[in-house]
Amino acid sequence: MALQATPYKISLDISDTDRGVYESVKFTVARHPSETELRLASRVLAYALFYHPQLAFGRGLSDSDEAALWQSDLTGALEHWIDVGQPDAARITKASRRAPVMSVLVYGNARLWRDKVLPQVAHLSTVRVLALPQDGLAEVASKLQRNTHWGVLISDGQIYISDGDEQITIALELWQGELPSA
Questions:
Q1: Exposed, middle or buried: residue 132 (CB in 10 Å: 0-12, 13-18, 19+)?
Q2: What is the phi/psi pair of residue 65, to 5°?
Q3: Are 127 and 119 in contact (CB under 8 A)?
Q4: What does the pLDDT look like over 26-36, one tens digit per residue?
């Protein structure tokens, strides 16, 4: 018998002062049986970081031809492809051709990935690469519960996550392109 995905009900109060986005959103995200806590936390943070009313989760690990998240316009045309993790250069190049903007939110020990992959995609002007530091992401992942309500403040390349009891600060690293803007 195949293992089922685990649903997580997430509520985020997003205050992104860099982009002028102030929203309270609720969504359910499915955690694939083979998905790590770090990847799930990265997808949730990517949702907050790139929030747009048309942003949606892809099927992720169950469909390798889809983005972790993507944003479409009202006609269904793809506007923004967002991957999390450490995709190879071919995947980044292909995604950059499918959408006008392509973002990668890297997590994990990615220095070797950066040295190998980024030179191959440096010429792609529509690709933005941001990295989440391992320690901060691990702390965030440990706080992710099946029912989670976080306040997320994004300001000057910093993400502040508050669950009411404590606050975690994550400093984004910009490896290519520009930080998300309005």
A1: buried
A2: -95, 5
A3: no
A4: 999 999 888 89
Is the confidence at residue 9, as pLDDT, over 80? yes
Q: Are the C-beta atoms of residues 128 and 140 closer than 8 Å to each other?
A: no
SS3 per-residue string spanning 75-121: CCCEEEEEEECCCCHHHHHHHHHHCCEEEEEECCCCHHHHHHHHHHH
Task: Give the confidence band of 98 by pLDDT, cuts at 50, 70, 90.
Answer: very high
Q: For 100-143, how does the pLDDT look when each residue is reduced to its tens digit (9 = 90+)?
A: 999 999 998 899 999 999 999 999 999 999 999 999 999 999 99
Note whether 72 and 99 are within 8 A (CB): no
| DSSP H or E stretch at residue 73 | none
Domains and CATH numbers, the chain: 7-176 (3.10.640.10)
Give, to the nearest 10 degrees, the angle between helix 37-49 and helix 134-143.
100
Tokens 């390798």 map to which residue? Answer: 64
